[in-house]
What we know:
Elements: H1 27-49, H2 52-59, H3 63-70, H4 73-85, H5 91-96, H6 103-116, H7 118-133, H8 135-154, H9 162-182, H10 193-209
Helix pairs in contact: 1-2, 1-4, 1-7, 2-3, 4-8, 6-9, 6-10, 7-8, 8-9, 9-10
Amino acid sequence: MTATPPANDTAPEPPARRRGRPPGGESAGTRDRILAAAREEFSARGYEKTSVRGIAKAAGVDSALVHHYFGTKEQVFEAAIEVAFAPALNAPEAVADGALDGVGERLTRFVFGVWENPTTRTPLLAILRSAVNNETAAAVFRRLVASQLLRRIAAQVDLPDAELRAELAAAQIVGTAMMRYVIKLEPLASADLEQIIARVAPVVQHHLTTP
């Protein structure tokens, strides 16, 4: 009689995870986790001191997985700030929604509304600080603002030099926001928001609509 071999009670080990690629079903969640970690790292450390390895560690993944989804650190930064900057990208709709003589106030009120909200202000602060301190980060920020914000606003302005007008209007708002929220220059930093809108909006209106 042939002896029956003893049963093997040890379950087979699961296959090793491939480095740099997510297992099935994890793609969306893993990508979002990496982006969230990247925003936190860039916010806390700035562009120069943030590394792909640090982002991966904060997200609980391998560095190769960060490269798989986003590529270089510059590309990770661009993806992270595009998500963080998304609320401000609705500004062109504020320009288009209503009469032309109120466009300055609508745009100014909308942008400062984004800044006044702590949830959207924190990532915007991180973006601006990185852009001010690092040329690579600044180039990414300029590209995003130019392609997705200013050109869309300029498309709503039916006057000569529309792109320049949009840039001047944005400079007025962003410059004021920098002084209020980043540099925190008094009395601007603690001034009533309605007072600021009342003074800035006419200048923005002038840039966008005055022949």
